[in-house]
Amino acid sequence: MPRAQLRSGIELEYTTTGDPSDPALLVVCGYTSQLISWRSAYIEQIAAQGLFVIQFDNRDVGLSTKLDGQPVSPIDVLRAQLAGEPLPVVPYTLSDMAADGIGLLDHLGIEIAHVVGNSMGGMIVQTMAIEHPDRIASVVSIMSSTGDPRVGAPTPEARDALLAPAPPDRDQYIADALNAKVWASRRHYDPDWLQELAAAAYDRCFCPEGATRQLAAIYASGDRSEALATLDVPMLVIHGRDDTLITPQGGERTAELVAGSRYLLLADMGHDMPEPLWPVFAEAIGGHVRTTLAI
What we know:
There is one protein chain. The chain is an alpha/beta fold. It has a single domain (3-152, 209-294), classed as Rossmann fold (3-Layer(aba) Sandwich). It is built from eleven helices and eight strands. The protein has an eight-stranded mixed sheet, with helices on both faces. Strand 3 (24-28), helix 1 and strand 4 form a beta-alpha-beta unit. The chain is globular.
């Protein structure tokens, strides 16, 4: 896969699918997720909607730049945020991660793009629209939230699974992938798929220190509610009823804040992208882009 050297010094591993003459769709992954988490068959369905799809590894995950030697305590950041106290120094925030995506568009010579993101990726694409409005044609925010800790909070079980210590080896990493059952789609839970993806992700890159920096970035970036309420960009918000990691209130509140946005709540979706729903996601994303182009 190619790599983009950004002006910031960050290097991003990326790949593209589809016809470059089609409208560009930048895909932003969630917390600790590598670009391979968006399966190629799913991406091909999205590209078949008439889109040029761009995927990349966020900083500190996959084959993109790692900020080694910059430790941080996400829990200390969260405590300070909740208490309204000065935040500890963090290596970066969601604003920096949003700028990475814009830098990739610059590298590819793309002036304006549609953006879609899952979970933390949804937070990043929201931040792109807030901070780089002239570069964003439309937004699809999936299983994400506003940054307000009172909205869409995880269940205790999902929070504990998310914050569990990094496994000591490959076998345990693959075994621990099944902990995602706590937030997965109940109807479409697929343990074989989870463990297959975990094995591929571990072999491609295992970087637990990067996970702490990404989580700290989420906590340090704070509440986007006020800024979201000022957005003038077509937005589609997708969430699942089964989501216990970012509960449906997170998506509902995002849609409430952004004027004119559409909210799609799926009964058989958790905090995941189950294969049986790929056609639904692809058509929803493609239809959103086509509606935007028709405006």
